[in-house]
Amino acid sequence: MYKTIAETAKEINMPESQVMRYVLEGRIHSVHDGQDFLINTQQFDTYFEQLEQVKHEIEVWKNTPIPEDIDVKDED
Q: Model confidence at 14, in pLDDT bands (50, 70, 90)?
């Protein structure tokens, strides 16, 4: 689905000026219809899926207890 710069900025929670800058830099792919830049928002699906996976991995890491050191009672 194609959306305008303003709609895309709202959807991905980013300022319009930043989205426009990314479009002009080629970091966000778009189509220019002579008046507006139109962005296919499906290009963000993989990014958001990877972001959710990373968030899950961080939560698992944060909740993993630290193992006790086996050398704590080192008696020589």
A: very high
Q: How far apart are CA 36 and CA 54, in angstroms?
A: 34
How, if at all, do strands 2-3 and 37-40 pair? Answer: antiparallel
Cut 0.90: pTM above it: no
Taking the CA atoms of 11, 15, 17 and 18 in sequence, report the sign of the dihedral they define: negative
Domain residues for the domain of 40 are 2-63
Rounded CA separation 27/21 (Å): 9
Number of domains within the chain: 1
Q: Which residue, chain included where needed, has tokens 């792919």?
A: 29
